[in-house]
Write a structure and sequence with these properties.
alpha+beta, Beta-Lactamase, Heat Shock Protein 90, 3 domains, 20 strands, elongated
Length: about 575
């Protein structure tokens, strides 16, 4: 192929025996989808594993809920039987010591039985020692039963002072008061312990969340509670339910069923590991299959990507020739057919860039020559402006002659013209015609004023703190005029009277931020008269300061209490706003 007068050679052999030259990259990527398909199949296996685990969870829920319901039913039937036995004692003619002792012997879970009147005075007690006429009117179970509408009541569990066993009071109302049986719950605990269990915990908890029976008896005697566990808050007020939760760092599954007519819950608790033990082998097989599929699919994809990356690296290496300016090295590409047009375009691009670069270099040489000529011309202009301003200064000085009145009138104008002359002198002596070193400019103005000023009293000490800041000529000239006016004003009027302190004149220049600079000119002289306002006075110098500050888009502050202190803030880059700032 020919571009202009240059021939571009692209050597692409369609019959190359290499595998990559026979297939498109997209074709090989299609083969890699086979690996992705294998991965998808393993994901199906993973989903099946999850389904199996869900089925195991459902079966565990059903089994444990049925067991909890069965135990709750047994407890409810037992309490119904025992409550009927107490109700018999409430029938007419059965209130006797012999009958109380007989019922207590036949129903062995009773620790003892007591019959009290409505005032809470115990009339009969089945204990051998007896507690007749004992007052139980303040006991919770007495008050709850006496005020109940019917049925039986079971108190909160507690540890008996006599037997040191978990105990609850079963009570029923009768016409003359209440009948209460103190139930030793050890029998319930023994019943739960005797149930065949493999890897789960069976327990009964009372309405306060305390264990009253547990297949692990130690939890009962320690008076452990489940009131703070998450599942218990969910179980309160519900008849049955289940929840997977974490207890003591172990994932557990808890099923519960409420005991009829009681505020008790029967719970079956089982660790997740024991529930899903049967699925471990299936899990290991699934994980192995997933890992194998991932490995195979990854290997295929990485092989294709690596081959593709090598071809790209080959083309990138040739692009470096372009960066280095070597345009005569053709691309001999033998990789994927997808990248062959790119290789061809590389050679076309090399030739186009070479031609454009030669044109740019020619233009650059012309522009450089023109720029040098303009720099010489601009320096000559600055030099001539500086000379013309010096000529104006000389003419004004000659005009004044030896006349003190004219000399005083012309001195301020001569100083202002000299300030503008300095700018042009700095520019034609500098290698940079665009920027002015404002700190150096301020220093030059200060030195000139001090050299030309005649002091009738002590010469003030000078304190200069200038941060290097560059500005353009449009900013530098107004700044120079402002500084000239303020320094001249201080030198003329601030130190007319000899005071006890050494006169001090201070100048500082600093950057407030990236967009603003601050100029401070201060003296410790006599200060300003009361009510002095620079914007309203007739002084041309003060009017220049205010006007030029506004022209630059800046602001000024004046403090005349202890000497005179001007603070002027200016933008580094002007935004075209010439409105006068607030003062």
């Amino acid at each position: 192929m020919v571009v202009g007068e240059w021939r571009v050679n692209v050597n692409i052999r369609s019959g190359n025996p290499k595998l990559r030259s026979r297939f498109r990259a997209t074709s090989l990527l299609a083969f890699s989808l086979v690996g992705i398909s294998v991965l998808s199949l393993t994901m199906v296996g993973y989903i099946m594993l999850r389904l199996v685990q869900n089925e195991i969870r459902r079966e565990a829920t059903t089994k444990n809920t049925m067991l909890a319901s069965s135990i709750a039913h047994e407890i409810g039937m037992t309490f119904d039987l025992y409550s009927r036995a107490l109700s018999v004692l409430g029938q007419s003619g059965f209130q006797s010591q012999a009958m109380v002792e007989n019922v207590s012997r036949n129903f062995t879970a009773f620790e003892y039985i007591e019959i009290s009147d409505r005032a809470g005075i115990v009339q009969f007690n089945s204990q051998p020692s007896g507690q007749s006429f004992f007052d139980i009117s303040k006991r919770d179970y007495f008050l709850e039963t006496l005020n109940a509408s019917g049925g039986y009541r079971v108190s909160a569990s507690f540890i008996s002072e006599r037997t040191y066993q978990p105990t609850a009071v079963l009570s029923v109302a009768w016409a003359g008061g209440i009948i209460a049986g103190h139930l030793n719950l050890k029998a319930l605990n023994d019943y739960l312990t005797g149930i065949e269990k493999r890897d789960y915990e069976i327990a009964v908890i009372d309405r306060s969340g305390y264990y009253i029976a547990n297949s692990a008896s130690v939890a009962v005697y320690r008076r452990e509670t489940v009131a703070l566990e998450n599942w218990y808050r969910q179980a309160r007020g519900s008849q049955t339910g289940s929840r997977f939760d974490k207890q003591a760092g172990v994932n557990t599954f808890t099923c519960w069923t409420a005991v009829q007519n009681l505020d008790w819950l029967v719970i079956i608790r089982q660790a997740d590991d024991s529930i899903f033990a049967s699925s471990d082998q299936l899990k290991r097989t699934t994980i192995f299959t997933i890992l194998l599929s991932v490995f195979l699919s990854g290997a295929i994809v990485m092989l294709v990507i690596r081959s593709f990356a090598n071809d790209l690296a080959f083309l990138v290496s040739h692009s470096r020739h372009l960066v280095a300016g070597d345009y005569g090295n053709p691309v001999h590409y033998q990789g994927f057919a997808d990248l062959a047009p790119l290789a061809l375009n590389f050679d076309l691009m090399f030739e186009a860039v070479r031609q454009r670069e030669e044109s740019l270099r020619a233009n650059e040489r012309q522009i450089s020559a023109s720029l040098r000529e303009k720099e010489v011309l601009l320096k000559e202009i600055h030099h001539r402006v500086k000379n013309n301003l010096q000529l104006v200064i000389s003419l004004l000085s000659l005009k004044a002659g030896g006349d003190e009145t004219l000399t005083e009138q012309f001195s301020d104008s001569i100083d202002r013209i000299r300030v503008m002359s300095m700018i042009h002198e700095m520019l034609y002596r500098s290698t940079n015609l665009a920027d002015i070193d404002l700190a150096e400019y301020i220093k030059s103005i200060t030195e000139k004023l001090l050299d030309n000023f005649f002091f009738t009293s002590r010469m003030p000490s000078l304190s200069i703190k200038l941060q290097p800041i560059t500005v353009d000529i449009d900013t530098a000239i107004p700044c120079g005029l402002i500084i000239n006016e303020l320094l001249t004003n201080s030198l003329k009027y601030a130190f007319k009277q000899d005071g006890p302190n050494q006169p001090v004149l201070s100048i500082s220049l600093s950057k407030l931020d990236q967009k603003r600079i601050q100029l401070v000119i201060a003296d410790n002289g006599i200060g300003l008269p009361p009510g002095f306002s620079p914007s309203k006075c007739d002084s041309l110098g003060m009017q220049l300061v205010v006007s030029l500050t506004s022209q630059l888009g800046g602001s000024w502050e004046l403090d005349g209490k202890a000497g005179t202190c001007w603070t002027i803030r200016l933008p580094v880059i002007r935004d075209g706003n010439t409105d006068s700032p607030p003062t």
